[in-house]
């Protein structure tokens, strides 16, 4: 087993910290432009050592292959309001020059058998160490708040049942995942309404956020 986990994980910790700042920066830039950001919030973590060891055993990953074969030792999560925002964020990530996208997995339109939905991106990210540059893998999960709600609860139930859910619970979770996606779809429809509403510009003296009385006053 790896003798010095702290040393092994250091570049991953640095990558997670840097990427959190960079991804949160996207949100800030939209806010500065008075635009609704496609990112609601960002979290990140380095996979805990017991979880790495458990996954190595389960997936038969040899120690020498760990850096290449375990893509989520560094994990970032981007939460969005709307499904459309997810694809906007993915496009923004594709344009960046400070990371390289290696793989994309769309579990939104190809949900997992559990009902899980999210957009996964595996990146190669260069970390600057005193010994030089080291390229590491990281996984970015992009999902809506509803998808995150479902995944968080399902994940905590996993601890209790070790992934072996009773059939009825498993079916209920699948139905709950569908309900969450229906909520996302409904919200997307409201989003279009919101964007239409944004064409209204209150006249002087009008209250912010309250559209003027006539619907013909659209200003672009
Ligand atoms: P748990 O319940 O065991 O999962 P900050 O001060 O904001 O920079 P902060 O507040 O410490 O950082 O939290 P951060 O880094 O934003 O988010 C950490 C939490 O996000 C962790 O929960 C993880 O559950 C979750 N998380 C974020 N990204 C991932 C990911 O890619 N994979 C997984 N599995 N989890 C992720 P806790 O608090 O460690 O507790
Ligand atoms: P953690 O840190 O506990 O979240 P695998 O790792 O075997 O599932 P693969 O192909 O390596 O599969 O990667 P995949 O499926 O693209 O992404 C795996 C990660 O997606 C998981 O990490 C979870 O974070 C998340 N995920 C995938 N399926 C589900 C699911 O059914 N429910 C929930 N809640 N999350 C899911 P880990 O390894 O489980 O680690």
Can you give a write-up of this model?
It is a single chain. The chain has helices spanning 5-32, 49-59, 66-69, 83-94, 145-161, 167-197, and strands at 41-46, 74-80, 100-106, 119-129, 132-144. It is an alpha+beta fold and 220 residues long. Strands 1-2-5-4-3 form a 5-stranded mixed beta sheet. Helix 5 runs antiparallel to helix 6 (167-197). The radius of gyration is 21 Å and the shape is flat. The chain starts with a helix and ends in a 23-residue tail after the last helix. One ligand 0O2 binds next to strand 1 and strand 2.
Structurally, the number of domains stands at 1
Order of helices and strands: HEHHEHEEEHH
Shape: flat
Radius of gyration: 21 Å
User: Main β-sheet, in a few words?
Assistant: 5 strands, mixed
Low-confidence stretches: 209-220
CATH topology: Beta Polymerase, domain 2
What number is the mean pLDDT?
90
Question: Any descriptors?
Answer:
20% strand; 220 residues; single chain; alpha+beta; Beta Polymerase, domain 2
Brief write-up:
Helix content is 47%, strand content 20%. With 220 residues, the chain is α+β, with helices and mostly antiparallel strands.
Helices and strands, with pairings:
Blueprint: H1 5-32, E1 41-46, H2 49-59, H3 66-69, E2 74-80, H4 83-94, E3 100-106, E4 119-129, E5 132-144, H5 145-161, H6 167-197
Parallel strand pairs: 2-5
Antiparallel strand pairs: 1-2, 3-4, 4-5
Helix pairs in contact: 5-6
The chain binds ligand 0O2 (2 copies).
């Amino acid at each position: 087993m790896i003798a010095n986990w702290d040393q092994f994980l250091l570049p991953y910790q640095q990558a997670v910290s840097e990427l959190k700042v960079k991804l949160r920066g996207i949100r800030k830039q939209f806010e500065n432009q008075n635009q609704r950001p496609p990112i609601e919030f960002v979290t990140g973590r380095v996979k805990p050592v017991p979880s790495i060891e458990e996954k190595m055993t389960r997936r038969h990953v040899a120690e020498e292959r760990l850096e290449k074969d375990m893509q989520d030792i560094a994990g970032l999560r981007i939460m969005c309001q709307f499904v459309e925002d997810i694809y906007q964020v993915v496009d923004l990530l594709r344009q960046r020059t400070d990371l390289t996208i290696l793989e994309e997995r769309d579990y939104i339109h190809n949900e997992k058998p559990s009902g899980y939905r999210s957009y996964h991106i595996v990146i190669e990210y260069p970390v600057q160490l005193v010994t030089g540059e080291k390229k590491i893998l990281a996984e970015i999960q992009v999902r809506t708040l509803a998808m995150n709600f479902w995944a968080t609860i399902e994940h905590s139930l996993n601890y209790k049942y070790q992934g072996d859910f009773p059939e009825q619970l498993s079916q209920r979770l699948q139905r709950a995942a569908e309900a969450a996606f229906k909520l996302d779809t409904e919200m997307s429809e409201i989003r279009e309404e919101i964007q239409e509403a944004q064409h209204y510009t209150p006249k002087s003296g009008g209250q912010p956020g309250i559209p003027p009385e006539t619907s013909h006053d659209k200003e672009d």
